[in-house]
Amino acid sequence: MNEELPRFEQADSSYLVLGSYRSGYGRRLREFANCLNMPTNAEAIVLGDTTNLETEVIPEFDIKINLLGEAADYIAGVYEKEDGGESPELGIIRALFVTKTSIFPRDYTGLTHESVETREDVIQAALAVYYADFGQTESEQEVAEKKKAELASLLTIAQAEGIEISERELTDIIKERQSRIDEPPAEYSWVHLSFFKRFESMDQCHPWTTMAELRDLADEMPGPERPRWETEFDVEMVRDQ
Q1: On the CB side of 169, how many CA atoms lie within 13 Å of its CA?
Q2: What is the predicted pLDDT for the residue at 95?
Q3: Average pLDDT, integer, range 72-92
Q4: Cα–Cα distances in Å, from 226 out to 34, 45, 76?
Q5: 7: buried, middle or exposed (CB in 10 Å: 19+, 13-18, 0-12)?
Q6: Over 80: is that where the pLDDT of 226 sits?
Q7: Per-residue pLDDT at 240 exceeds 90
Q8: Whether the Cβ atoms of residue 90 and residue 77 lie closer than 8 Å to each other
Q9: How do beta strands 74-79 and 42-46 pair?
């Protein structure tokens, strides 16, 4: 704790970041943490990157998450799946630190949505169509045509419901998703969904679909203003170069 806590004490705003720490999930989680770290007076620590304690008194993890969670000004949880170590972490922050926690579940549209009601519903339905398995007996062209027809039908329904989203916007979202997170929509257990609903009722739940959205949602966390250079330079242009 002497290694980790001083970083929080020296910052005006400190963040403890939770989620999945391995593979693509870990890369996206750390990219989100880097966004929180951009102001010079902010400090974001990913729980999975902290030093493991050596004690046999009680479980080491309990000590670590309780002390860091208590010391942090804010806690952020980024969720993309229902299994793994993030599940017990979610339960702990829900029980102990709910008032200073914001969560960012990928592909979450609410506890019960049986129809297309919002722009987010349209996007999730489009992703489900895009990643649907239409069987191995059809050719790639036939599958592509079926998916195109279903997406067109989805847009017709959206327009009828008064939801503003164009075919171009939907196509760009699917392409951006495929380039960074080429996975079907995330699925969660009812336990996760009930936790998400609790944070949603407190306006502390911020769903996302693409990495661009997740980076933008870092601004939803309370704390210092982002650095001026972010508004003076095109980050995406620099990234591409």
Answers
A1: 10
A2: 92
A3: 88
A4: 12, 17, 17
A5: middle
A6: no
A7: no
A8: yes
A9: unpaired
Q: Are 38 and 32 in contact (CB under 8 A)?
A: no
**Mean pLDDT, the chain, as a whole number?**
84
pLDDT in tens, 83-134: 776 788 998 999 999 999 999 999 887 654 556 778 888 888 888 888 877 6
Take residue 101 and report the two structure tokens written for it: 């926690």
Q: Which pair of tokens denotes residue 211?
A: 């990495």
Beta bridge partners of residue 15, listed in sequence order: 44, 74
Q: Torsion angle of alpha carbons 234, 235, 240, 241, nearest 10°?
A: 70
SS (H, E, C) the chain: CCCCHHHHHCCCEEEEEECCCCHHHHHHHHHHHHHHHCCCCEEEEEHHHCCCCCCCCCCHHHHHHHHHHHHCCEEEEEECCCCCCHHHHHHHHHHHCHHHEEEEEECCCCCCCCCCCCHHHHHHHHHHHHCCCCCCCCCHHHHHHHHHHHHHHHHHHHHHCCCCCCHHHHHHHHHHHHHHCCCCCCCCCHHHHHHHHHHHHCCCECCECCHHHHHHHHHHCCCCCCCCHHHHCCHHHHHHC
